[in-house]
């Protein structure tokens, strides 16, 4: 696979951040590509990014059950992930709670709350939200980056055989 083909195929795995795929590309990837191999390379590229670059990746993620979801403007991956957790079926009170937490979280940290929602439900997500909003910025930045990497692995696992 050429570098351009790799970027085309995997450039959206780290939400709207094709630079991660570009820097994670290796001409010597074993064939067939596996989720584990591609994730290892891309996660290493993400971790090697500057704090400003990684912050941009965090900021590229949508709010959970936020305005983009309501407007139908999520990426297909994000839409499926949020729907799988039931975030597309919130009551008015639950939506108000998510909206308030999203606003407070972004105000405190400068990026949206990010969690790999696969296998979680809205109550699990709210509990994590309410716990993590009490973190300091350094802890939460590291936690959000780890969640971005987990989301990327889950997405890659849906695209490629598991591998390592």
Overview of the structural elements:
Helix 1 (3-10) packs antiparallel against helix 2 (18-24), helix 3 runs antiparallel to helix 9 and helix 4 (51-60) crosses helix 9 (137-157). It contains 9 helices and no strands. Helices cover 63% and strands 0% of the residues. It folds into 2 domains: 3-55, no CATH class; 61-157, Orthogonal Bundle (UraD-like), CATH 1.10.3330.10. It has helices at residues 3-10, 18-24, 35-48, 51-60, 67-71, 76-84, 92-109, 122-132, 137-157. The protein is globular, with a radius of gyration of 16 Å. The model has no long low-confidence stretch (mean pLDDT 89). The two termini are 20 Å apart. With 164 residues, the protein is mainly alpha-helical.
Task: Set out the fold topology.
Layout: H1 3-10, H2 18-24, H3 35-48, H4 51-60, H5 67-71, H6 76-84, H7 92-109, H8 122-132, H9 137-157
Question: Any idea how many domains?
Answer: 2
Strand content: under 5%
**How many individual helices?**
9
Classification by helices and strands? mainly alpha
The main β sheet shows up as:
none
Q: Architecture of the largest domain in CATH?
A: Orthogonal Bundle
The N- to C-terminal Cα distance equals: 20 Å
Rg on CA atoms, Å? 16 Å
CATH superfamily of the largest domain: Oxo-4-hydroxy-4-carboxy-5-ureidoimidazoline decarboxylase
In terms of quaternary structure, the protein is single chain
